[in-house]
């Protein structure tokens, strides 16, 4: 071949052969001169531009570069050409259909037989799917990271033995150990020694039965300080249901009774790079099933390069993974027999080290019009990185879905106009709605107007100042029940920092708030009861130890009255200071005085009465019983006491009729003066019941009658 004239540089190999190979490739191929004009473009190049071959040779490719990529690509192109070395470019280009496609191009300098630089040869393959997979992976990972990092909660994952396998920054901050240190430890290693025995069976049961649990315990930090945490724990399972770890969502509750710890944002970044593969070409003589391979095809299959650059169909199939071999063979044979091109993805095992790699291959049968035997031309790309990226994406999605589906806390995302876009099963279970009833609804559909106003105030604060907010709101379940939720929320933003959505983590505090309210009521009631009790004791003491009283008798009376008061308090304590049994109050009051069975007869319905009335009744019955033992019916063996009460009706109102009647004792004389006991019964009991109390000193035995409205709390 003679020396090429400027502007008519030869193609890299024989022109006919090069055109056949290049036109069969599904990627753009071009050859440029020193003046950057094209001397050759292949069919894929022309089809991408959607113009004629001649127009494609003259087409200024700078016109179709995406504006955001243009400056970078032009600068890299100029720099690459200046170095006279192979260089790569990657960016977005608009095809004939107006679509933006990601292309990865490789350009290499060309030289003539004398070694003079005469231009460049380049190939560009479409990597849009790989880039979209990469961007999708980043979006998914960003969503997962947002759920984990936006919260004040710490996230820790351990294996089934309790060994840490994953922690977020917030957990390290709460626990007081670094991530590297925690990776060498078990959960129990940082648990306070006094809490381990209680923690261990909960963890073992969760692993054994899959039972989630929530508990509070202490962690011992590296500096020796102690932090209280609330852990919401659940087992993490694979898609087949097999458990592989345990997830703990941890809140620092050390100062919860004063104020909850503010949310802290922690970030975890998970990135996966997907690189485009190089192109390897090969051909086959369909009679001999052998042909020439490009040098990098040998590299692709892990085979040593050969001086003659020839390989066979059988050698290719031998490298194909056994599970994919029949599929590959069938696609190739169909192409050989019918001329139908194929595009397939399959695995190979490299010849040098057995490593498994993924390839994408395109093949076409070349038919000549001059009746020469047909031959096959194909190209292959290593797509292992893309396949791994897809697998990582699936695993990431599965990991995100596992956390999302199995978390005990409420996970919610909304648009900026408060429309719900996703919730986890815990939200649906708490509210009692189906998923399609919640998705697309507004958060205001589940709140009263005042609670929605609180939520919107927090949302507007985030929109103005960023960050996260914590608030407690009341939501309404489907059956109308109010549920008190503690919500931690944060806005998510795009690459430019503009808010795009809202992510929230909630926890049901309904029972905790109810318990707190109940405890406050009990404390208030206790304070009230203590004051009343002290006033009663003071009155008993004053009357028992008044001037001139016999000390021994006064002490005995005082002790008896205190004992009656104590019995009533014991019963009230057992009933948590709620309504108590009238029969129980009367029975306990007379029990110490009855002696032989049957001497005191009790007959009446078991009416419940409130605590204050119960104490007054107990003291009155005690006084009557004490008097009966000293002076009345119970002072003689044959004496008897009958206590009868009944619920009656007068003027359509429920009333209480109570009768104390003594028989068989000594003759009763009307006392010349009323003692403390008599006055307490007639005045105190009457005042407490809001009715009349009368003591009749009949000769045959004392009779006390009570007629009053039914005490508050009785039925």
Question: How would you describe what is shown here?
Answer:
- This protein has 715 residues and is of the alpha+beta class.
- The chain folds into five domains: 15-126, 2-Layer Sandwich (Beta-Lactamase), CATH 3.30.450; 151-252, Beta-Lactamase, CATH 3.30.450; 279-382, PAS domain (Beta-Lactamase), CATH 3.30.450.20; 409-508, Beta-Lactamase (2-Layer Sandwich); 515-709, Histidine kinase-like ATPase, C-terminal domain (Heat Shock Protein 90, 2-Layer Sandwich).
- Helices cover 39% and strands 29% of the residues.
- The protein has 21 helices and 28 strands.
- The strands form seven sheets. A five-stranded antiparallel beta sheet has the order 2-1-5-4-3, with helices on both faces.
- Helix 17 (510-544) packs antiparallel against helix 18 (551-574) and helix 18 (551-574) runs antiparallel to helix 20.
- The protein is rod-shaped and about 150 Å long.
- 29% of the residues are buried.
Number of strands: 28
Q: Structural class, please? A: alpha+beta
CATH topology of the largest domain: Heat Shock Protein 90
Count of discrete domains: 5
Instruction: Give start-end ranges of low-pLDDT stretches.
Output: 1-7, 257-277
Q: In this structure, how is the largest beta sheet organized? A: 5 strands, antiparallel
* Outline type: rod-shaped
What is the second-level CATH architecture of the largest domain? 2-Layer Sandwich
Identify the CATH homologous superfamily of the largest domain. Answer: Histidine kinase-like ATPase, C-terminal domain
- Determine the strand fraction and express it as a percent band: 25-35%
Distance between the ends = 120 Å
Please, what is the average pLDDT?
A: 79
Radius of gyration: 46 Å
How much helix, percentage-wise, in residues? 25-40%
| Number of DSSP helical runs | 21
Task: Look at the structure and give the CATH class of the largest domain.
Answer: Alpha Beta
Strand order of the largest sheet: 2-1-5-4-3
């Amino acid at each position: 071949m003679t020396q090429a004239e400027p502007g008519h540089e030869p193609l890299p190999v024989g022109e006919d052969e090069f055109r056949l190979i290049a036109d069969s490739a599904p990627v753009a191929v071009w050859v440029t001169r020193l003046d950057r004009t094209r001397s050759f473009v292949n069919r894929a190049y022309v089809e991408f531009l959607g113009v004629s071959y001649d127009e494609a040779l003259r087409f200024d490719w700078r016109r179709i570069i995406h504006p955001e990529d243009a400056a970078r690509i032009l600068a890299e192109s100029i720099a690459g050409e200046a170095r006279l070395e192979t260089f790569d470019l990657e960016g977005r280009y608009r095809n004939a259909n107006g679509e933006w496609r990601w292309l990865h191009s490789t350009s290499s300098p060309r030289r003539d037989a004398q070694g003079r630089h005469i231009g460049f040869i380049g190939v560009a393959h479409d990597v849009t799917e790989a880039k979209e997979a990469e961007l999708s992976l980043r979006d998914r990972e960003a969503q997962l990271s947002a759920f984990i990092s936006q919260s004040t909660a710490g996230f820790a994952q351990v294996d089934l033995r309790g060994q840490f396998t994953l922690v977020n920054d917030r957990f390290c901050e709460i626990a007081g150990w670094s991530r590297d240190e925690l990776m060498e430890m078990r959960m129990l290693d940082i648990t306070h020694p006094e809490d381990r025995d209680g923690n261990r069976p909960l963890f073992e049961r969760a692993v054994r039965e899959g039972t989630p649990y929530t508990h509070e315990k202490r962690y011992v930090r590296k500096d020796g300080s102690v932090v209280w945490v609330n852990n919401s724990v659940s087992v993490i399972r694979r898609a087949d249901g097999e458990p592989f770890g345990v997830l703990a969502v941890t809140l620092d509750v050390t100062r919860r009774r004063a104020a909850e710890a503010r949310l802290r944002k922690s970030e975890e970044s998970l990135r996966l790079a997907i690189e485009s593969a190089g192109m390897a070409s090969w051909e086959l003589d369909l009679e001999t099933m052998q042909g020439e391979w490009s040098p990098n095809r040998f590299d692709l299959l892990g085979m040593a390069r050969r001086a003659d650059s020839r390989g066979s169909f059988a050698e290719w199939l031998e490298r194909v993974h056994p599970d994919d071999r029949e599929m590959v063979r069938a696609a190739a044979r169909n192409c050989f027999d019918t001329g139908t091109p194929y595009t397939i993805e399959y695995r190979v095992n490299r010849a040098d080290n057995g490593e498994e790699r993924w390839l994408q291959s395109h093949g076409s049968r070349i038919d000549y019009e001059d009746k020469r035997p047909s031959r096959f031309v194909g190209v292959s790309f290593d797509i292992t990185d893309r396949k791994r990226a897809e697998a990582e994406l699936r695993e990431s999605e599965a990991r995100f879905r596992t956390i999302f589906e199995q978390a005990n806390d409420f996970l919610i995302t909304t648009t900026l106009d408060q429309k719900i876009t996703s919730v986890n099963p815990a939200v649906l279970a708490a509210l009692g709605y189906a998923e399609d009833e919640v998705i697309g609804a507004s958060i205001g559909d589940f709140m009263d107007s005042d609670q929605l106003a609180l939520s919107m105030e927090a949302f507007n604060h985030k929109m103005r100042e960023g960050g996260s907010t914590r608030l407690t709101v009341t939501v309404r379940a489907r059956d109308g029940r109010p549920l008190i939720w503690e919500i931690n929320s944060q806005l998510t933003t795009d690459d430019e920092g503009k808010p795009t959505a809202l992510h929230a983590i909630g926890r049901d505090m309904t029972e905790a708030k109810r318990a707190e309210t109940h405890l406050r009521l009990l404390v208030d009631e206790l304070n009230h009861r203590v004051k009343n009790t002290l006033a009663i004791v003071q009155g008993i003491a004053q009357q028992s130890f008044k001037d001139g009283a016999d000390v021994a008798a006064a002490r005995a009376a005082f002790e008896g009255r205190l004992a009656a008061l104590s019995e009533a308090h014991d019963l009230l304590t057992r009933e948590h200071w709620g309504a108590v049994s009238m029969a129980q109050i009367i029975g306990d009051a007379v029990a110490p005085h009855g002696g032989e069975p049957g001497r005191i007869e009790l007959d009446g319905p078991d009416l419940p009465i409130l605590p204050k009335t119960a104490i007054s009744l107990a003291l009155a019955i005690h006084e009557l019983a004490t008097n009966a033992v000293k002076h009345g019916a119970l002072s003689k063996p044959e004496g008897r006491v009958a206590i009868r009460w009944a619920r009656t009706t007068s003027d359509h109102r429920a009333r209480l009729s109570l009768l104390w009647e003594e028989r068989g004792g000594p003759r009763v004389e009307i006392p010349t003066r009323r003692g403390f006991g008599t006055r307490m019964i007639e005045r105190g009991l009457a005042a407490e019941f809001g009715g009349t109390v009368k003591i009749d000193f009949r000769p045959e035995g004392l009779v006390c009658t009570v007629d009053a409205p039914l005490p508050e709390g009785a039925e």
